[in-house]
Fold this protein.
Amino acid sequence: FLPLARAERILEVSRILLMVQQFAQGGSERQCTQAAIALRRAGHDVHAGAMRPGGMRAPDLEAAGIPLEIF
């Protein structure tokens, strides 16, 4: 078992930014989208970033309440 202080740190909310080139059809983009949604459901503060706007995965992220950042 973990010491209580360490277990409490593990349960803290993390701020996470996941980046892809664009929220398009590819496998990396799918994995990024799935990871972002799972992390958000786990209670983390997740943002998704891309170099180009749009793409077929963007609506899934927006529907999950994940902010999209374009760089």
